[in-house]
Amino acid sequence: MGGLIMCSLFISTEDVNTQESEQTTSKSYEDLSRRDVRSLIFHFLYAAEAFEYEESVQSIIDSFNRGFDLTIPHDGEIFMIVNDIINKRNELEKIYEPYLANWRSERVSVCTKLILLFAIWELKYTETDARIIINEAIELAKCFAEEDAYRFVNGILDPVSKEFRKESTIEH
Hints:
The chain is mainly alpha-helical. The protein is 63% helix and 0% strand. The chain folds into two domains: 31-87; 88-172, N-utilizing Substance Protein B Homolog, Chain A (Orthogonal Bundle). Helix 2 (34-50) crosses helix 4, helix 5 (89-96) crosses helix 6 (110-125) and helix 7 packs antiparallel against helix 8.
């Protein structure tokens, strides 16, 4: 399934019918790359934010499954990660706020905020290398946030990741 561009992972069934390419656009959930999975998580977080967290993650996933010909399980990794980030969003926001030099958190765009929340969640709750997490967050920002947001994301996540590394060394 390699070669999918994260920014264009989703093609609606209507778009599929109008494409003149012979390339198949149907995606099996099992064939998604880690980058595609991150993109899905971002999209679900964005949808939850758009619904002001009043729509269930299950309902949002059902809509995506119908609209984009995917089968994302309700008991799988994506569902659990999205739920966890939503439930911990206030705690995760407090982690990056001290690094907003001369910025108020209200000034951070929705997309940038969601990318930061997701990346900080990964830094805190997974064993994934910080460089990979930061790189993937930068790629999400290049696709979905403002033009220079990727620099802002990098500028926040770099010191946050160093702080987490320092904390984990002290604990061991």
